[in-house]
Amino acid sequence: QVQLVESGGGLVQAGGSLRLSCVASGSIFSFNAVAWYRQIPGNQRELVARFTSGGSGNYADSVKGRFTIAGDNAKNTMFLIMNSLKPEDTAVYYCNAIIRRRASDYEGSYWGQGTQVTVSS
């Protein structure tokens, strides 16, 4: 059974940095990292960073210049590097990837369970 698991969240002071990881396990034929999202209590889930074919990435205005999305599809892994963190970044962060379990299977969109990031003043 395919599973995506995020890690690396925690408590950090404003101005600090965190590196979030997302690793897929199980039966996987191919893995393609898509994006990181976050959700603040009482708000809708929002896009934080997305891979683009151009290679530079697509970022929300609120995190542009501070966050970087990265990944290694061959290792079924993706990352979100967060610098200069602000209290407004406090949220649960989720990874999203497209996975094919078998060569003959259709691709599907998978989500992790989320990891909590809390930024203090």
Task: Explain what this protein looks like in three dimensions.
With 121 residues, the chain is mainly beta. Helices cover 0% and strands 55% of the residues. It is built from no helices and 11 strands. The chain has strands at 3-7, 10-13, 18-25, 30-39, 46-50, 58-59, 67-72, 77-82, 91-100, 108-111, 115-120. The strands form 2 sheets. Strands 2, 4, 5, 6, 9, 10 and 11 form a 7-stranded mixed beta sheet that branches.
Q: Rg, please?
A: 14 Å
Element-by-element helix/strand order? EEEEEEEEEEE
Number of distinct beta strands: 11
* SSE class: mainly beta
State which percent range the strand residues make up. Answer: over 45%
Q: Could you tell me the mean pLDDT?
A: 95
Q: Main β-sheet: number of strands, strand sense, barrel status?
A: 7 strands, mixed
Low-confidence stretches: none
Q: What is the count of helical runs?
A: 0
The outline comes out as globular
- Report helical residue fraction: under 10%
